[in-house]
Specification:
53% of the residues lie in helices and 0% in strands. The chain is built from six helices and no strands. It is elongated and about 50 Å long. With 94 residues, it is mainly α. The protein starts with 5 loop residues before the first helix and ends with a helix.
Amino acid sequence: MPLHDRRYLLSEQQRNAVLSLAEVEAYGRDSFGDPEYVSIYGLRPADWHARGVRLLARTVVECTHDRLADLIGRDVAELMRCGPRSPRAAFGPR
């Protein structure tokens, strides 16, 4: 089995392929050292796969680990809370 990393999954040959559970787990293992890296709404790959969820290779690459996504969301919320109130103030005069 080839190395399931970002480059491989986004290749012309793979990007639109529906991945098997083994391929999703291989991506997590090869790219992050964790076969359960691609969690969806807190579900491990085996759990969401068992429910019939299937993902394209390009979608798997775009998945952000739930813990990381939570941190990103908190940072964005803080920026929105503390940032300018109007889009014009954020981007300057036109």
